[in-house]
Design brief:
CATH topology of chain A: Methane Monooxygenase Hydroxylase, Chain G, domain 1
CATH class of chain A: Mainly Alpha
Number of helices of chain A: 6
Number of domains of chain A: 1
Shape of chain A: elongated
Oligomer: homodimer
Structural class of chain A: mainly alpha
Largest interface: A-B, 32 and 32 residues
CATH superfamily of chain A: Phosphate transport system protein phou homolog 2, domain 2
Order of helices and strands of chain A: HHHHHH
Low-confidence stretches of chain A: 222-234
Mean pLDDT of chain A: 87
Largest sheet of chain A: none
Chain lengths: 234, 234
């Protein structure tokens, strides 16, 4: 190729910058997820407000990354590993933006929950939340370090999140049936749990992207075990 | 520019091909949404199975479009309108893929609903479904014709979908409170309605993309009226 060495070097730096920006965006999203669970569990309206505000930053970062990805593809015409790194950055930033959005949606429920529902409802959600934050953390580590094994482990772990969700779903349904006064708050919690489950799905997407980035091959889209039972397949 | 006329012509054709593929994908997605509502309303397991199968085709189309978008950006380095058309095709295909997924998730609930719940629950969902299908249809028309006005109308119409969703949400909650035996099926319907509302959000995204594609300007992300009341902000 007729390129000057310094051009190649600049391109390498450009790609490094891109992936470090994605990693930073990941850090922001991770904090939003951890905080939104705290906001709901502690019914902390101030924390919820700060999450809603900080999510805007995540949105801005996604747009910035998108612009740079387009410029890189247009001007550098990356091939093989470089193309994969560029596409992975784009897709992962999109998943992170969605994760930020879901955290924001969870935070918004704090407001509605501020009334007076039994603490019993929040325990399961808190456990599930910690699990999801852990997977997101591991997945982002795998992205930064390029550790495929970690990515596969995090990818597999999503089953556990789904199991948690399904058992929480049944538990919340039981509460509702036992006491109609709990229907409204249980429904809110159902949506919080559903959003956490969707955050888990986005972690899975990111783990798949890390695998594709490092190995050039896609992980099987359909896991061997059904992702969730039919009581709630959405 | 030092390009041969036939090169420019080939590029124009490439872009036309791209947008006609997106339009075709839109047609498939639209049919999935219309059918999934029928599957739930009529508890039609066969229709549900066909939807789940046809959604795979939508997924394949998204990947094909993505590959071609990357190739176009790399080889043609499109500018201005051409770049917008390329990016719009990419983003719209992504929204259509999500719409297909959500239709599939709705179809899957048919299985669980096959038992014996009162028809009363399905009426509201059917109405909401028709509304969403109509908006998707109008939005895709706007994409094909480049009619910005139609896109803006469809974009505004999402508020109506959200209002429908909110009133359905309250209605379903009332059923649950009145009769605990309806909690399980009402919860399923709640998720069906939620998925329809999310399909509406993706229509909004597409309408925004059409606006950007035609005018080069973005529609205001935050609508003047809150998108949904706090009883369900997810």
């Amino acid at each position: 190729m007729n390129v000057q060495p310094h051009t190649v070097k600049a391109f390498g730096e450009e790609l490094n910058q891109l992936s470090s920006d994605v990693a930073r965006m990941g850090g922001l999203a991770e904090a939003l997820v951890a905080d939104c669970i705290q906001a709901v569990v502690r019914r902390d309206g101030d924390l919820a407000a700060s999450i809603i505000d900080r999510d805007k930053q995540v949105d801005v970062m996604e747009r910035e990354i998108e612009k740079r990805v387009i410029r890189i593809i247009a001007l550098r015409q990356p091939m093989a590993t470089d193309l994969r790194a560029t596409i992975a950055a784009y897709r992962i930033s999109h998943d992170l933006e969605r994760i930020g959005d879901l955290a924001k949606n969870i935070a918004r429920r704090t407001h509605v929950l501020n009334e007076s529902e039994p603490v019993v409802l929040t325990r399961g959600v808190e456990r599930m939340g910690k699990l999801v934050v852990g997977h997101l953390h591991d997945t982002l580590n795998a992205y930064s370090s390029g550790a495929v094994d970690e990515a596969v482990t995090a990818w597999r772990a999503d089953e556990e999140v789904d199991e948690h969700y399904n058992s929480l779903f049944r538990e919340l349904l039981t509460y509702m049936m036992e006491d109609p006064r709990m229907i409204s708050s249980s429904t809110q919690m159902l949506f919080v749990a559903k959003n956490l489950e969707r955050i888990g799905d986005h972690c899975t997407n990111i783990a798949e992207m890390v695998h594709y980035l490092v190995t050039g091959e896609e992980l099987h889209r359909a896991p061997p075990v059904p992702k969730s039972d039919l009581s709630d397949p959405a």
